[in-house]
Amino acid sequence: MEEPEFATEPRRLARALLVAVAIFGFGALAIWGFIEGREELAREAERERPVKAPQRISLEGGEPVITLDAAAQEQSGLRTVALQQTEYHEQLRAYATVLDLQPLVDLDNSYAVAKAQLKGAQAKLDASSAEFEREEALFKTRTSIVTLDKLQAAEAAFHVDEAALASAEAQLRTVEETAEQSWGPVLGRQLGEDNQEFARLVRRQDYLVQVTLPPGVLVNTPPPTATIQLENGQRKEIHFISPAAKTNVSIQGVSFLYTVPASNDLLPGMNVLAFLPVESTVDGVVVPLAAMVWWQGRAWVYVRTGPSTFARRAIETDYPLPEDGYLDRSLTSDTEVVVQGAQMLLSEEFRAQIQVGEEG
Known about the structure:
With 360 residues, the protein is of the alpha+beta class. It has helices at 5-48, 70-76, 102-140, 148-188, 196-202, 342-359; strands at residues 57-60, 63-67, 79-82, 84-98, 206-212, 225-229, 235-243, 255-261, 271-287, 293-295, 298-306, 309-314, 326-328, 336-340.
């Protein structure tokens, strides 16, 4: 028997209600899952974000300033010194070449050989001359002890030895002239002498440096001492020997010869800069090498601008000092520069720039 229509209606309503509740539940669950997933992604991104270092770089007048408190300065071993005023004798920049000393050594050996040959020729001539004079004296007594043939043989031997001596003397003069023409009168005349300066060159304890002035530049008197600067910035003192016998063919300027102590960072054929002091002077401060850092082909120092602040400043490198560092005219004697930790400050400055670039 079929149920009445009014009896089935509540059941249909109940089923519809259950379906609606189920649909709503699934929708709410999906929405909750979506929201929870977004939050989890955000939390994961936050965990993976690099930890930012404390910001130590600020801009003052468009220039970066590094801030380090006293504790950070002590921890990094940072140290500063006040610059000292000095008077600098202006220097003429020239070109220098470390010469190969083998030709000079060869000439010294040739001189020794020629000198020995001359000594031997002189000894032979002395002997043959004495023999000739003795034979001639005996012949003049008209005794039968010395015949004419024997006298003539003694005379011939004397003349042969005389010619040999002349040849040995000519050979020695040739070596001496070659030495003077190649190395100048001072070194040329030191061949074979007991000269300590020359001996150090032959033994490679000193090197010979040819300093050539720029074309058209002249100096009245070459300075007794000057300096050369190597590629690494190191400077060495050089000592005047004499004017050079020939110029540098690639520069065509007036040249001088100087000596410098031998070292592993100097090799024959090496080209370096030379600085010759002249009479004019320049006032400035001494910037020690320990304070300098190099960047983009320029020299920089970090100056203390406050108890905990430091700024980078460019300095001049036109006036190298013989002892240490450079003379600079832009800084003053009351300026404090970092002499220990300058490279660390440069790295700190660039690290901050990289972080700003990544955040941008």
